[in-house]
Design a protein that fits this description.
205 residues, alpha/beta, 8 helices, 8 strands
Length: 205
């Protein structure tokens, strides 16, 4: 799959499923090549296994109909069962290599990172993407790293000749997303923000 320009992360306590699906459907007006740069990530850790699986099936159907990608947070077993395009791994998840062994070489694997050093480690582990957060202030996620962290991560990846996508997460909305892309991010991810059916564009280029 292509690196997402925008990833919508499910969290029903903040964004009920009907709202998430409505936000996703708004991208239907985009051309197919743009819809392919949208992803939905199944998260909702408070749900039971059965409820998470049921939600995942609905999100898998919605993304398939749109031509968008579908990712699963942490649960490699659910990603495999739901036919997801990939998985997002946290600090307590399996290793990148183990996720690939289960999902196949073509699976998209992203890794949660909370420092620039962690971005480099994710690249060394063979991740497709490093998700750096929090860029801006967001509830319960600690001090924001700021745009400077994206610039530093991009520079250090280039210096190390590491080919990994850099995604920004944390307090990002439609207004701030272009600044993240201009600072070196390849894409952004968000839970609460409504992008109005438009992909974020970089400030230049």
């Amino acid at each position: 799959m292509l690196t997402p320009r925008l990833t919508l992360i499910s969290q029903a306590a903040d964004v009920p499923e009907p709202v998430l699906l409505a936000r996703l459907s708004a991208f239907g007006a985009l051309p197919p090549e743009a819809r392919a740069r949208v992803a939905v990530q199944l998260r909702d850790p408070e749900l039971s296994g059965a409820a998470l699986h049921a939600l995942g099936r609905r999100l898998r159907d919605a993304t398939a109909a749109l031509g968008a990608s579908f990712l699963v947070n942490d649960r490699v077993d659910l990603a495999l069962l739901l036919g997801a395009d990939g998985v997002h791994l946290g600090r307590r998840s399996v290793a990148v290599a183990d996720a690939r062994a289960l999902l196949g070489a073509g699976a998209f694997v992203s890794v949660a990172c909370h420092s620039v050093d962690a971005v480099l480690r994710a690249a060394e582990a063979g991740a497709d993407a490093a998700v750096l957060s929090p860029i801006f202030a967001t509830p319960g996620k600690g001090p924001p790293l700021g745009l400077a962290a994206l610039r530093e991560a991009r520079a250090r990846l280039a210096a190390a000749s590491r080919d990994v996508a850099l995604l920004a997460l944390g307090g990002i909305d439609a207004a701030s997303a272009p600044a993240c892309l201009a600072a070196g991010a390849d894409g952004v991810a968000a839970i609460r923000a409504d992008f109005g059916g438009a992909l974020p564009a970089p400030l230049t280029g």
